[in-house]
Write a structure and sequence with these properties.
The structure is a homodimer of 341-residue chains. Chain A is an alpha/beta fold. Chain A contains ten helices and 15 strands. The longest helix of chain A has 20 residues.
């Protein structure tokens, strides 16, 4: 049973573990610094399918299928899957996982989905609600652009604060803790909205939510940023990362060089300057986590990681109605050890 | 700790209870047979706001606020809220709950959201992850029509299989079980898609998912439909309800007169023939449950209710790309007693 700490952190008493995981990336992602880490990449942005949306479904399907294969599991060994994505009605997940026959808990957390799903999946194992669960999510540059901004053919100009939605997916299978990485704690985020209205500056909209969740985690646990090798946000990019570091310093929890952001790790900016302020999208943090960091935690190269995936709950409809962009960030503490040594 | 039964049912060992609840309805809903049961109704479909989407946020906010008031709670007493709706990016929930400051777990389950949220909320209490949680959802006829079908001004013709998206919201606060109704068990649904492509016949798309979840629950628990006063689906309407009853009979679990559907309870069809095959939308099952049935369970007028909210995971984009409509149904067993007597 989890121990509730402070206002809103859950410390897991018999920490579940990530059993297996997989990451899928597109062409630009394959050419980035983590390209070699992905289980599956495609030179074809459509992943062999007829639409960008179907491509995204394909990516989620491949991510979960590969993660299951690595564990030697069939889908029948999962008691449930937590999934969602950025597309309206989360069709990346719906159609991607339709044929799996696994009880399906649909999420909408925008780019915070990987942490939201991971947290719920871990709690289901901890609570005895499932023996094995999975969290999976994706994003696709082309499906996101046409849904949230402009059709690709329009060739819209991008300001320097704009980020690049990753064409990527990630899936992790969770189960009883037998080998690292373990899920030690989770903190669910609150909706934070400081009034940012610029749909080309998601980092600024999300940074306050990330700061809110991180500060609550540090206050609840009594731990500080120094306890962790890496405090990793999902997709704040250049602008949002700077804002987060300023906010955390002001709150007495300076992150310093322990902070990194998946959106700043995914691309080779010299080669692809169009990625602007960095990567974004549900698939960005999912693929960085499942492509590289879970491996580092298993090997012991990394000991303690705070994974705070950040979501801009942006809606074109709400934006056109003059609304600001609310943010949310969910946090998962991943560790190479199940408890304090 | 919950007991896992069979393939996918969770039997709660210390059943959490619905502490308080509230339902909000629009004008047509207020004129229906359950009109007097709603905590809050409005003759103004915009609920005093400037857009249908903002109206939906207002409804969710009022539903949760009223439920909290009835419990004598402030939002600070909730450790988390599970919410979602039909709007793209779930903006009914995002903007409706933004100012509450409660950790927010965003869901997308289409019209199955109330059961999905209720199941998760109950498990969080059962697992000790939260002392009090809430589930909330909504739908609005006008925001749904323009997003999924046609702008209202177009005056599109509706075939007789079409349903009427309810302008309604419901919220339930869950906590440790001290008084009925108790949450005795939950079963998460799988995605089921038998190839229905008609966006004006949601009932047919969802009925197989409802049958799948109900059959799994009956098989897992060894209970039959006779054990329950009411087997209540969310929004199958006339067409889907008939299909469900046929499917259940074929599977050896005839529902007979124990079955009812929230979509068939919400409206006075003689007065409002335009509702067609019945009500639908996340708010339909949420408002029927929170407006009437939870009260009946508390008073003892109803003893055992299987609440299976049904969702059509329909996407206009996927439909335009030729895809069929997947369905999902999540199930919650609500009872006036915490255990077998």
């Amino acid at each position: 049973m989890a121990q509730r700490l402070g206002e809103s952190t859950l410390l897991l008493q018999t920490p579940p573990a990530a059993v297996s995981w997989a990451a899928v990336g597109g062409k630009k992602e394959a050419e980035g610094p983590l390209g070699a880490c992905f289980d599956c990449t495609s030179q074809d942005s459509a992943f062999g399918r007829k639409s960008w949306e179907a491509a995204e479904s394909e990516m989620q399907h491949r991510a979960l299928e590969t993660a299951l294969d690595k564990a030697g599991f069939g889908p029948g060994q999962l008691q449930c899957v937590f999934a969602g994505d950025l597309l309206n009605q989360c069709i990346g997940s719906t159609y991607g996982l339709r044929d799996m026959g696994v009880p399906y808990v649909g999420l909408f957390g925008a780019c915070s989905t990987m942490a939201e799903g991971l947290a719920l999946a871990a709690l289901f194992v901890e609570g005895g609600f499932a023996r094995h669960t999975a969290a999976v999510t994706s994003s696709h540059f082309c499906s996101a652009e046409r849904q949230f901004r402009f059709p690709l053919e329009y060739g819209g100009q991008r300001p320097p604060t704009a980020q690049w939605t990753a064409t990527a997916a990630g899936a992790a299978v969770l189960g009883p803790g037998q080998a690292p990485p373990y899920v030690r704690a989770v903190t669910f985020g609150r909706i934070v909205d400081l009034g940012v209205r610029d749909a080309a500056n998601m980092g600024a909209a999300m940074a306050p939510a990330a700061a809110d969740t991180l500060c609550r985690f540090f206050r609840d646990t009594g731990l500080g940023p120094d306890r962790f090798d890496l405090v990793l946000t999902g997709d704040l990019g250049q602008v949002g990362s700077q804002l987060l570091c300023q906010l955390m310093e002001r709150e007495g929890n300076p992150l310093g060089r322990r902070h990194s952001d998946c959106g700043l790790m995914l691309y080779d900016k010299a080669r692809h300057p169009q990625v602007g302020a960095g990567g974004s999208g549900c698939g960005c943090s999912a693929a960085v986590l499942c492509g590289r960091l879970l491996d580092d935690l298993r090997s012991g190269a990394l000991h303690d990681l705070l994974f705070a995936a950040t979501g801009a709950l942006m809606s074109p409809t709400a934006s056109q109605q003059g609304e600001s962009i609310p943010g949310v960030a969910h946090l998962v503490w991943l560790s190479s050890a199940p408890q304090e040594e």
